[in-house]
Amino acid sequence: MKTRILSMCLPAMAWLLLALPDADAGNLLIQGATLIDGTGKPPIADARILIEGNIIRRIWSGAEAAPSLPPGTQVVDARGKFVIPGLIDSHVHYRPYMGEMFLAHGVTAVYDLGNPLAWQTAVKKGLNSGKIRGPRFYFCSGITIGNEADGDASGGALAGRNLATMKTPADAKQAIAALKGKTDCVKLNEDTKGDFFTAIAREAHGAGMTVISHSLNVIDSATWGIDGVEHMTGVGISAIRKTDGRSAVEAMTIEAGHKNSLLYQWMEPAAFDEMIQYLVKHNVYLNPTLDFEWKGIIDRTPGFEAEDARLLYNPLLQYMPLDERLVTLGQYHWADKRSAAEREQFLKGYRNVQDFLRRFVKAGGKIYSGTDSAAANTPGLALHHEMQLVVDAGLSPMEALMSSTKWGAEILHLDKQLGTVEPNKLADLVILGANPLDDIRNTKAVDQVIRDGEIADITYHSDYTFPFPLYGPESKHLYNPPPHLRAIIPAVVTQGKAVTLRVMGRGFVPNSVVFFGQSQAQSKWVSATELAISLTPRQTSEVGTVLITVQSPKPGGGVSEAVAFIVDYP
Known about the structure:
The protein is an alpha/beta fold. The chain has two domains: 86-418, Metal-dependent hydrolases (TIM Barrel, Alpha-Beta Barrel); 484-568, Sandwich (Immunoglobulin-like). It is built from 17 helices and 26 strands. The strands form four sheets. Strands 18, 19, 20, 21, 22, 23, 24, 25 and 26 form a nine-stranded mixed β-sheet that branches. Strands 1, 2, 3, 4, 5, 15, 16 and 17 form an eight-stranded mixed β-sheet that branches. Strands 6-7-8-11-12-13-14 form a seven-stranded parallel β-sheet. Helix 5 (172-179) crosses helix 6 (194-206) and helix 6 (194-206) crosses helix 7. It is globular and about 100 Å long. The model is unreliable at 1-24, 148-159 and 473-478 (pLDDT under 50).
């Protein structure tokens, strides 16, 4: 990571207080397991892990002399089992139903990269204090650049997510000051570039904050000062050097964070080493989100889908909205209608991405695993799929595990507290029934989860509740937004006349439909803020007031508010 000033580290006294055991908390001794501590060091057989309150206090092997234990210490017999650090999902868009799903899969911390700030703040207090059952919660906030908010098509989402606004690069200092202490990192998107990005990164690093972002050119992003790159889009584009590949990509509609799988077929492996050397030199971490982008077309698709289906139709998880379950399973079929030639183009790109990641980590690069859950991935389970895919790319099971523990903690400067099983760190760990270093799939063999020093309940409950429902347009770009109707132009038509109306509002999608009273009108999508409908003389044959609504289909979608339209006398 970039060099950070010491002033933004946890004050020594605050961390000392955090490290003191909770007087009301019990003590645990986990004994007999093989400890894989997440540092990359060899496992410790027959390990003893003493937890006082919520802090790991001491670790030793069974061959060493045992210290005296605090009175009342609860002993967990873990003989024949394996202990790993609590897992970290570094890219989620948290939803109210996710808490049990993360814990059941050993995910004890998540990084939320897109939700309303007031909601994130309340959720963080609830989850991190243990008042809400679920993983630790950290979140990032963005900065609105220039006049971005003036034409905000997100229905106010920008204003609700970002704590600061910049008109010029000189505003970076005050923007970062607005974020400091209120958010855990700075999250930018691919539209933030050049002098703006450089100024933000400089001020953020001076304040000890991480900058992560989508990217459309990872070399440019590294030059500007990025710490963590979300998705592989910027890597793919940077690795395309030949004119034909460049021309093909320029003709595509590219948006980082969406499925851009065709572009990777033009990646040039001859460019990889130079790129990797530059990224490693600049200490840039990568979050590949392989499961999010590729799970619908690879050999593992049928197995992953079957696992998801078994979980998502668990009767105890029916509080997860049906829309969410359907869109998650539907993402396994995005490539079903592709031709054999197109599928091979996708798979060629996938092999290029695998090759890049293998060479990147071999050269000393680090990845942090995230799933983009709530963007058509199953919370908790998807992180295990992600680790499987990075092993398929050529990483070792240990490296895959570190991507979801140690390296994930490092990207947000949480590695003094989380990410490894070491003395004086927070007691988040997972007890497995099988060795993940033999087969990374064994991370799914979760036997027990220790979350903040306590044995967590990792069962599902049909009555699981969450005090902060989430309303309004959100970051799930795979869902249709809810439509909102503002005006009809013109608002009046003469009886018996044919007319074309402009339906104005926001959140319209190409398959939105318009209802004229109780009947569907012939409509045409113009933009996200406008639809056109054509009314026949028969439809305007009766004088009166007619309510017009817009309906967008599931998943997501919904019915807009009604706007009155008048059919007047001749």
